[in-house]
Amino acid sequence: MAAVFTAVEMEEEPPPPPVEYAVAVDRYLDTLRLGEQSRRVYRIALATWAWPLVDRTPPPGRARRGATPPIVPLAVLDDPGVPARLRAALRDRAARVDARTLGRELSIVRGALAWWRAQGWIRADLTGALRTPAQPQQEGQGLTPEQVSAVFALPAGLREQTFWHLLYESGAPVDRVLALNVHELDLPRRRERPSAASAGEPIRWGSGTARLLPLLLVGRTAGPLFLTERRASPATPARDVCPVTGRRRLSYRRAAELFTAATKPLDPAGRGWTLRDLRQAGRSHLRPRPGETPGTRRGRSG
Question: Of 129, 153, 182, which marks where a domain is finished?
Fold first, then answer.
């Protein structure tokens, strides 16, 4: 006897919900009409936010573009502790990137979260934890010239003084400075070597950094520019390990802790200043005065 199938029975069943965050990302991207470059930007943005979901920090700067994110079960997004983790990650991310980059990333992530929730894959509404600040990245003048001079007069180590000078003289984002590698430096021209992998203008610096860099680089021709004092663990990605010393790349968190602790005696409030304060002072220093053209003051020492 021939089998009889109803129209309902013949309909193809929808695929089961994804188990992993990365698979959910792929399924979401498949619904969008994106060019190759836009798809890459979306994927990097969504992958960046996989780290805070499991209470980890994403790689700094360009390192995150090729980094393999942690394996995250999609069900983690319904964990009660996730909103707090996302808010903390948002504060950290806002201190590292400009307002435009932050807004673009948050828009991408919120779009994915909303679509996953509409599919019934997650229950929690996490968009509130990723609300763009009313005035993201709004900054004043940072430290005064006298305060910057006091910072550079601190009895800090060679690594710290080089990093602080480079951050101030370049005005570049903190994570981009920390992502620099030795082979990317053009010391005679006082700049980062132009690269297809670099976004925007190369980082440039002044005489203070130019004086310190050769001392910091003695014996090294490759690997991260700024290193920790300890050897890297076996699980550390090769790009973050110095091939000469075996030490790993200095993290944003550790660099920020060291700067704030060192500047506590200088801060009238006793809290210590932030790397963002120092960078903003440098950016103010690099702004052209009336009558100057952009870039006239770039490269001068503070």
Answer: 129
Structural domain boundaries enclosing 77? 17-129
Quick check: pTM over 0.85?
no
Instruction: Give the phi and the psi of residue 185 in degrees, each rounded to 5.
Output: -95, 130
The total of structural domains in the chain comes to 2
Q: Using alpha carbons, select from 128, 63, 33, 125 the residue that is nearest to residue 90.
A: 128
CA nearest 171: which of 42, 278, 17, 14?
278
Give the residue with greater pLDDT, 286 vs 137.
Answer: 286
Q: Where are the beta strands (DSSP E) in the chain?
A: 185-186, 191-192, 227-231, 247-249
pLDDT tens by residue, 147-185: 999 999 999 999 999 999 999 999 998 988 999 999 999
Residue among 133, 138, 110, 1 at smallest CA distance from 45: 110
Same domain for 242 and 163, yes or no, is: yes
* First-to-final CA distance of the chain: 91
**Same-domain pairing of 124 and 150:** no
Could you tell me the CA-to-CA distances from 179 to 98, 199, 283 in Å, in that order?
16, 13, 19
Q: Return the amino acid letter for 271.
A: R
Rounded percentage of the chain residues whose pLDDT exceeds 70: 81
Q: Identify whether residues 69 and 34 lie together within a single domain.
A: yes
